[in-house]
Amino acid sequence: MTAPGSRPGRYLAGVGGLLAVTAVWGTTFPLVKDMTTRLPVADLLAVRYLLSGALLVALRPRTVAAATRRTWRTGAGLGVVYVGALVTQTYGLTLLPSPVSGFVTGSYVVATPLLGLAWFRTRVTGRTWLATGLAVAGLAAFTLMAGGDGGAVSSAGLALTVLSALLYAVHVVALSRWSRPAEAYALSVAQIATLALVLTAVAAPGGVTLPATPADWAGLVYLATVAGALSFVTQTWAQAHIPAAPAAIVMSVEPLWATAFAVLLYHETAGWSLLAGGACVLAATLLVSSPPEPGDAAPSRPLVPATAREDP
After folding, report:
1. DSSP state for residue 131 in the 8-state scheme
2. pTM for the complete prediction?
3. Where is it located (predicted)?
């Protein structure tokens, strides 16, 4: 089903926006893995989102100042969930190869439609269930055959990354439910501000370590701007037009980008299991890349009263 008020053209634009975001996110797996060998995880993330937030506020200060209390409350809640997902993913990435981290993180595609159904009673079309099944098959192909591609996988890193995937599923479902096109920019700022505050509080007791080389500063600026500020705004706007389950399936392409960049830039290995899994994920994405027919969409029934989602 399309998001409330969404039109086919905007649905397609949302899909395109999410695909662009996944390509950017894919570049961050090997980059962050490399940078965390020289910078503490919390320090790297804190500075990244401080820069992201400062940039967005500087570009559109009036939009940020006009944000409603609802937007700040929603953004704060989403930000807390996202920071948990990001921190567990990043710590897991320090223990796993980039392709493994990318594919396991992508398993949130499995949890998203079930979570939406249980939380908001959002019905899912047959085409979306089929696409979810294909995505699951892709992840299973990778998981069951990963040992043949790179040997043993860290159980601690795997557990952290699975937890991260579950938290990302919560974020995707909530964002699709509460994001509105007109509020996308301010809601992005609210989320990033929450990330920056929480991460700075975590990093501050030991002192915040800054990059020591021009290359690391360049990487940090890229993470803060293209992979941070721009990606947050694009995802928030796109999910105002796409329901959670199709959005998660589109974003499951991210591991393919992560694998491609890891292989091209850092010479990590990618075996047949990754290729087979990737083919399934791409097929799943194609299934949900076109707007559903009007008859395919069934209305969702929220568990939260409408008044609880509005400003008092």
Report:
1. H
2. 0.80
3. Cell membrane
Binned at pLDDT 50, 70 and 90, residue 194 comes out as: very high
142 vs 290, which has greater pLDDT? 290
Query: How many Cβ atoms from other residues are within 10 Å of residue 5's Cβ?
Result: 10
Average pLDDT over residues 88-116: 82
| Dihedral angle of Cα 116, 121, 125, 128, to the nearest 10 degrees | 10
Q: And the tokens for 294?
A: 């009007």
Mean confidence (pLDDT) of the chain: 83
* Chain centroid to CA 228: 11
Burial environment of residue 250 by CB neighbours within 10 A (0 to 12, 13 to 18, 19 or more): buried
Residue 70 corresponds to which tokens in the numbers above? 């609802």
Amino acid letter at 106? Answer: G
The 10 Å Cβ neighbour count of residue 241 is: 27
Average pLDDT over residues 156-176: 92
Q: How far apart are CA 197 and CA 192, in angstroms?
A: 9
253 secondary structure, DSSP code: T
Angle between helices 155-178 and 244-251 (to 10 degrees): 140
> Do residues 52 and 196 lie in contact, with contact meaning Cβ atoms separated by under 8 Å?
yes
Query: Are 56 and 230 contacting, i.e. CB atoms less than 8 angstroms apart?
Result: no
DSSP 185-250: HHHHHHHHHHHHHHHHHHHGGG-PPPP-SHHHHHHHHHHHIIIIIIHHHHHHHHTTTS-HHHHHHH
- Single-letter amino acid, residue 197: L
**pLDDT score recorded for residue 217:** 97
Identity of residue 300: S
Q: Which amino acid is at 26?
A: G
Do 135 and 281 touch, CB atoms closer than 8 A?
A: yes
Distance CA 62, CA 293 (A): 39
Length of the chain: 312
| Angle, in degrees to the nearest 10, between helices 98-105 and 8-35 | 140
Task: Count H helices and E strands in the chain, helices first.
Answer: 15, 0
